[in-house]
Design brief:
Layout (H helix, E strand, L loop, with lengths): L1 E6 H11 L3 H8 L5 E6 L5 E7 L3 H22 L1
Parallel strand pairs: 1-2
Antiparallel strand pairs: 2-3
Length: 78
């Protein structure tokens, strides 16, 4: 499995500048092979990782699950 390391701060800043979502970027990276995307902080420490699936269908399932979990966490904060 290919591993891709991404500086989280720079990645999310670029998303804001380009007014795009990480899911759009992830979709462009799909080539039939799974990839491990590793998000690093400014000290090169791992913040989190994501296994990019080999299909856009699975990516959409992941996006839906992420959105649900994110909404649940926001609801629990209020």
């Amino acid at each position: 499995m290919q591993k891709i390391e991404i500086q989280a701060d720079q990645f999310f800043e670029l998303l804001k500048l380009k007014d795009t979502s990480m899911w759009e970027i992830f979709a462009q990276m799909i080539d039939g092979n799974e990839k491990e995307i590793i998000f690093l902080d400014h000290e090169e420490k791992i913040l989190f990782n994501y296994i990019l699936p080999s299909t856009t269908e699975k990516l959409e399932e992941d996006r839906a699950e992420f959105s649900k979990q994110f909404a649940d966490k926001l609801a629990n904060l209020n």
